[in-house]
Amino acid sequence: MAETTDVVIVGGGAIGASIAYFLRDRPSPPDVTVVELDPSYALASTPRASGGVRRLFSLPENIQLSDFSIGFFERFAETMAVDGSPAEIGYRRGGYLFIVPDKAAALLEANAAVQRRLGVKVDLLDRTGLSERFPSMFVDDLAIGAHSTEDGWLDPHGVLQGFRRKASSLGARFVADEVTGLDRTGQRVRRVRLASGRELRTDWVVNAAGAWAGEICAMIGMPAPIRPMRRYEHYFECAEAIEPLPYVKDLDRLAFRPEGRGYTGGLPNSDEPRGFNFEVDNDYFGRVVWPALAHRFPAFERTRERNVMAGLYDQNELDGNAIIGPWTGTCDNFLLAAGFSGHGLMHAPGTGRAIAELICDGGYQSIDLTRLGWSRVARNEPCPERGIL
Ligand SMILES: Cc1cc2nc3c(=O)[nH]c(=O)nc-3n(C[C@H](O)[C@H](O)[C@H](O)COP(=O)(O)OP(=O)(O)OC[C@H]3O[C@@H](n4cnc5c(N)ncnc54)[C@H](O)[C@@H]3O)c2cc1C
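The joint structure predicted for all components is written out below.
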């Protein structure tokens, strides 16, 4: 006998747990079952993330998703409290800094104009301004920087556990099992099959399986361009003390921020062969990250890598942006919330609210994410970020 539930969410990482929370927080909430194959989250992307949250995007949809989500993170401890116990996520408003050379200066300025129109506080700094604010930075080959002082970083695992605990307290069921099959009749998925032999009859299936989302899509023949892409997160220390830094990113994808006594970050390789690969190349830091770091901040000439972890991006090969919403026209009750390509943690609250609106209200009520939907994939019309990714 199949059990019945209104919504099945595949994957209980930051995205799945957020969706479960926003659904159950409704006045008349649907019955929600989250299927998560590994409740220890040993290989999930969320706990391996760097924790950066920023409004510095070019697409209005991404800026709006961040704006809602960062405001939500600032109140997370209280909003997600259960039985009076706050859900601490260590949010730190340390700021973000994007730095570019001449060739990308106009783009950075154009992006800042869009951000400001949407209410983002961003300072544009020329070379002198950069030097004054960040004296340890080498600026001779830079033209301009965008410093958003109200962005920052947080503890990704805390976010996941906070959403999960709150969603559970509101009645969402988290099931430790693996989704192995989806049964589709006509334009609807009717049944979700689990490795244990259990079957769930349902009205909605939400694919929040992160780097594994492409495999879930394949179960009903949906050709989603989402592939796992390995990325390292390094923890390193600097021999010399320097001024407090924000989360720094450049055009070549160097990205790092302060963490404890040191720093955490990396330099993703876009040409990384796709696949579920968690092996660590112990030379990568010295070969790729350190030269970029020491060039930009000469104080890092003497640095030591203390730790490294490999994690997976749920890379959307079409345009590097999330795919949010139903498989329109083909299977209307199968919703995708994946393909975040490195931005999923910071967009988890906004995505949770958006999916809840699609299911409970029949359409977007707050941020119109139609452009991030499946149609652009079907039409092969990329909707990419411009400038720093
Ligand atoms: C090194 C690194 C640094 C990053 N830095 C940032 C950052 O600074 N800021 C940011 O916003 N994002 C960052 N990201 C991206 C971010 O981690 C992801 O976009 C986000 O965590 C995705 O969340 P998720 O819930 O979709 O995926 P996950 O956390 O991976 O959750 C998906 C879950 O689905 C489960 N699952 C898979 N298949 C099945 C199945 N068949 N049945 C049941 N369950 C299944 C998995 O076990 C997993 O727990 C980074 C990623 C990496 C790797």
